[in-house]
Amino acid sequence: MKKKWVSTLGILGLCTCLTLPVYAAEMVSKPETHHHENAISGFVNYSELQKTLRQIEEKSKGLVQVEVAGKSHNGLDIYTATVGTGDKVILVQSEIHGNEKTGTVALLNLLQNLSTNSKQAQEIREELTLVFMPMMNPDASEADKRRNSMTWDEVLDKFPQLTGATPSWNYLDRGISQSYNYGENPGFDVNRDFNPNLNYVPEAQDFPGASNKPGWFITPESQTARDVYKSLKDEYGNVDVFVDLHHQGMYYVEGTADKVTLSLSAQFVPDPNTSEGAKYAEYAENYRYDYSRQLNVAAYNELQSYGNSKFTNISLYSQGLDLPGTALGSYALNGSGTVLFEVRGQTQMMGHKEKGQLVKSVERGLTGIIEAVADGSIETLNPEDYDNIPLTSNKPSN
């Protein structure tokens, strides 16, 4: 068995005992109650994130660089943490949806271990530049909800050319039963606010849009993510790998009664080199679907290597998607190999033990990608093996 450089304790073992730092000016008040009954105290909140990032940066003695990439709608800092000096760039983001928190803990654990003096960590740092955005949507994270807190009127203040346009389809301003009351607290699904044209400026004629159309970069969170991506492309020539960490509902591995631990995907828009993807023809030269499939296979193989365990119930997320308004869709068209992680359940559905298991799954899947890209073995993987990964089903098989 190959030596593992990832600790499965790390920040996960610390997050329940961290004390709040003195960053009161940057904090927002949290609701007295959440929209569900289960506690989320086992995850990392915004204040704990700030403190932990600073601790890791200081302990690394220059190996980790923490920077403020931008501000959320409510004025909270959106951070990047960079480790490594290699030519190959891996960008990973978590919590673009604020109630999808396992990825944040996993990234902090990985960051801590990538900054050690172990031989493998050093080799990875020499080959890769890893950029983590561990809490993309801090406003939503603090409120434990999916969307940000921006209103349509606030969009119009920033983009007066949109006056008279119908609010975008991903804007929610109505209450939802047994969920967060967006009637009183409206907001946008930030992960539908991306556009393959990284320099796009919002135009009224493109609203309200639809799920299979590009977004607009009207939210500060998507603008920040876009600017990080663009700056990396400018500096390195390309973002080789982009991984987006999410949660999903309860699903099953097709043909079994096994609950899915984690779903993967490499496909978010139709291939621009095919008739189905002809509308994206201007991006055809950069599209790297085979490389995306290889990255997904690397994550799948790593998780499967643990044998019959909680980590082996891996499936493919829905295929045949056309979602150019997602970060994954937009970045795939711009030349990045892309990977979606969707772990089982939302924060309100997890007990403490399950949280730990799911965090480990994310860490180990990411480890497979990082190691394979760093040592070049990613190029030896057969992209066709991606199509052998079992699909996700919404019903168990008897």
Automatic annotation (TrEMBL):
It holds the Pfam family Peptidase_M14. Its cofactor is Zn(2+). Residues 1-24 form the signal peptide. Keywords: Hydrolase, Metalloprotease, Protease, Signal, Zinc. GO terms for cellular component: extracellular space. Residues 42-398 form the Peptidase M14 domain. It comes from the Bacteria. SUPFAM superfamilies: Zn-dependent exopeptidases. This is Peptidase M14. The keyword Glycosyltransferase does not apply. The keyword Zinc applies.
